[in-house]
Design a protein that fits this description.
The protein is mainly beta. It has 1 helix and 14 strands.
Length: 302
């Protein structure tokens, strides 16, 4: 199953790249041909952010040297023709930090997600669509729980890895779409599969997957919202909200995943980013998980 999912993700990326090349070729042509407008709208951004804190040996105020980095890739490929709309988004977010004296580097973020949303407009000029969505997400690297042994040495125990957990959600619904930067999809009949590795369920459940098993099926309702707008010139705010309720088990415990991304452009290649994410999933933790990252670095749009 893991190989199938990884192959599907790879094929999606290849297909999107091939469509882009085809679109570019048809739009450019040769000097004797009329330029045609493509039905595809594509936009991508890659950012590499850095943060560091350093002290010399004579610093008396206390503190520990640390440094970190974060790589973020966001790519959108949206298609519109007639009453049909097809939105695709790839998101990769990975960060590490290292503190002097620690035995291990630690992840600050790790996310890989692909979302594909197909919509058929109810009628011309309407902002409502009949829709079907597919979403896949996991992490790229191993995750650990850190501690110390009886001698005070730092230890770590693996808790997550690629496809452990991995999530695949899909289902029909209704899409309200004002434009590519403001849309909400409601899917009241959503299937969700959760995958994990067998080593993590040998002694108990792992992210909702029962002991001794490697997958779990859920059926419920999903709501996915996206809003991106300019706050001021060169300052852009991006919001992503995902909600899910499992009809088959504690439907009142709604899974929440909200990401706030504030991008402040210095020039065409330098920017600062503030990323805030909060997750509630009672199969993973009985409280809100929160992460925040702030840094300055290089940004490239394509």
């Amino acid at each position: 199953m893991k190989k199938i999912m990884f192959s599907a993700c790879t094929l999606w990326c290849i297909a999107t790249f091939a469509q882009e090349q085809e679109g570019n070729a048809s739009a450019t042509g040769n000097g004797n041909e009329t330029t045609t407008e493509s039905n595809w709208t594509r936009a991508g951004i890659v950012s590499l952010l850095f943060n560091q804190t350093a002290f010399n040996h004579d610093w008396t105020g206390g503190g520990t040297n640390n440094y970190g980095g974060n790589l973020n890739l966001s790519y959108d490929a949206n298609y519109k023709k007639g009453l049909w709309a097809w939105d695709n988004k790839l998101l990769v977010d990975y960060g590490l930090t290292k503190v002097d004296g620690d035995a291990f580097s630690k992840k600050t973020s790790d996310r890989f997600a692909i979302t594909s949303l197909l919509g058929a407009q109810i009628k011309e000029d309407s902002q409502w669509y009949y829709s079907f969505f597919v979403n896949f997400q996991t992490q790229l690297d191993k995750g650990y729980k850190y501690g110390t042994d009886s001698q005070g040495n730092q230890t770590r125990t693996e808790t997550t890895r690629f496809m452990a957990p991995g999530y695949l959600s899909f289902g029909p619904g209704m899409l309200w779409k004002k434009n590519d930067n403001l849309k909400v999809n409601i899917a009241p009949a959503t299937s969700r599969l959760i995958f994990t590795a067998k080593k993590f369920t040998e002694t108990g459940a792992h992210f909702g997957v029962e002991q001794g098993k490697t997958s779990r099926y859920e059926f419920g309702a999903a709501l996915n919202g996206y809003a991106k707008f300019d706050v001021f010139e060169n300052i852009t705010l991006e919001n992503t909200l995902n909600l899910y309720s499992n009809y088959l088990d504690k439907p009142g415990n709604i899974d929440i995943d909200y990401t706030f991304n504030l991008m402040m452009k210095v020039n065409d290649y330098i920017s600062t980013n503030l990323i805030f994410q909060t997750i509630y999933d009672d199969d993973a933790a009985k409280a809100f998980q929160v992460r925040e990252a702030f840094g300055a670095g290089f940004t490239y749009k394509f």
